[in-house]
Amino acid sequence: MAGRPRLAIGTYGSIQTTESARGRFRALTRFRDWDGQTRQVGDRG
């Protein structure tokens, strides 16, 4: 079975969101940076 195809440079994968007990949200995704490395990025709101 083959793995998933690599992300193209400058693109992101699916966005995952979770809600905390206080009603706040957190979003996480993987982003392929311009140097070719894939990094996990996120934000809380």
Structure in a nutshell:
This protein has 45 residues and is mainly β.
How would you describe the overall organization of this protein?
The protein has strands at residues 16-19, 25-32, 38-44. The protein is mainly β and 45 residues long. It has one domain (1-45). The chain has a 3-stranded antiparallel beta sheet, with no helix packed on it. It is elongated, with a radius of gyration of 13 Å. The N and C termini lie far apart (38 Å). The relative contact order is 0.30. The mean pLDDT is 91.
List its traits.
45 residues; mainly beta
Write the layout of secondary structure elements.
Elements: E1 16-19, E2 25-32, E3 38-44
Antiparallel strand pairs: 1-2, 2-3
